[in-house]
Design a protein that fits this description.
alpha/beta, 7 strands, globular
């Protein structure tokens, strides 16, 4: 079970349309304020909403957005409590569900017409929630190294009930030790997480955040199964993931697990593997990732 937990953690942490013409608004949309999310907007053109992964802020997407904002209007979302941001109302209750609701409110209040939504890791799950909730109001969705149920990437037969004790352990460990001290404390307990552990803590050290939000996000990402909601998504879905040619590496075998996890979609997803990348696809292979995004939008 420790091996399963380590693998799941490594999957979750880092640091995660045919272009429809945007409608010209006759008047400026009202300013948006939220106690759950922060949105940075720039550029002009069809809308793209970027949602980062666990412990990352909107800056995780900046290098991609910098190549697109001359032709698109990009919206970089940050969940409050990640990075250096104030925790706001994320201090209690759920995280991904309320974040999705606030993104949906942002789309409505800003009068955004059928945006493309791109989410990494936990942000990919949030993107799926938004697409399921808003139906035809979403133009298309890209999930990056994400899954509707993360434990299924380790074992397709795993259930939420089976993973919940491990998720609770991770939740309590993050609350007790924090993102910086957790690795050394795990070592004290005699748990060797190896390379998977290094990936987890390097990612947390990059931006991190309030331990209460990190703990809640980790718990939800491990236990929430969105597969029953896939049939409610009408927008086309593209799944992008890091891949290697090494037949002995776990990433070499991911495509079959991804296809199985997304089989509940109303229309078959498009799968794009990015060779040479692991979880931080957009940072580890920025040119190949940008090319995938351009195909997704064109």
């Amino acid at each position: 079970m420790i091996r399963l937990f380590a693998s799941l953690l490594a999957t979750l942490f880092v640091l995660a349309p045919v272009a429809v013409q945007a409608k010209v608004q006759s008047q400026a949309a009202p300013a948006f304020s939220s106690s759950r999310i922060i949105v940075e907007t720039r550029g002009r053109g069809p809308d793209i909403i970027f949602i980062p992964g666990l412990g990352s802020t909107g800056s995780a997407w900046r290098s991609t957005a910098d190549r697109l904002d001359n032709r698109y209007r990009v919206h970089l979302v940050t969940l409050r409590g990640f990075g250096e941001t104030q925790i706001g109302d994320n201090v209690s209750g759920g995280l991904a569900g309320p974040a999705a609701s606030e993104i949906e409110r942002y789309i409505r209040e800003q009068r955004i017409d059928r945006p493309a939504v791109i989410g990494h890791s936990l942000g990919g799950q949030i993107a799926l929630r938004v697409a399921a909730d808003m139906g035809e109001r979403i133009g298309r969705v890209m999930v990056v190294d994400s899954s509707p149920f993360f434990p299924s990437l380790i074992d397709a037969r795993t259930t939420s009930d089976q993973v919940e004790p491990l998720a609770r352990l991770g939740y309590q460990a993050l609350l007790l030790f924090g993102d910086q001290a957790l690795k050394s404390q795990v070592a004290v307990f005699g748990v060797d997480m190896g390379l998977a552990g290094d990936m987890v803590f390097q990612g947390l050290g990059l931006q991190g955040g309030d331990r209460r939000v990190l703990a809640q996000g980790l718990y939800e990402a491990l236990t929430v199964d969105l597969r029953p909601r896939l049939s409610q998504i009408t927008a086309p879905v593209t799944v992008v993931y890091g891949w290697t040619r090494d037949p002995d590496a776990p990433r070499n075998r991911l495509e079959g697990l991804y296809r199985y996890g997304f089989q509940g979609l109303a229309r078959t997803a498009r799968f794009e593997r990015i060779e040479g990348a692991e979880h931080q696809v957009m940072m580890q292979q920025p040119q190949r990732f940008l090319a995938a995004v351009q195909r997704f939008l064109s």
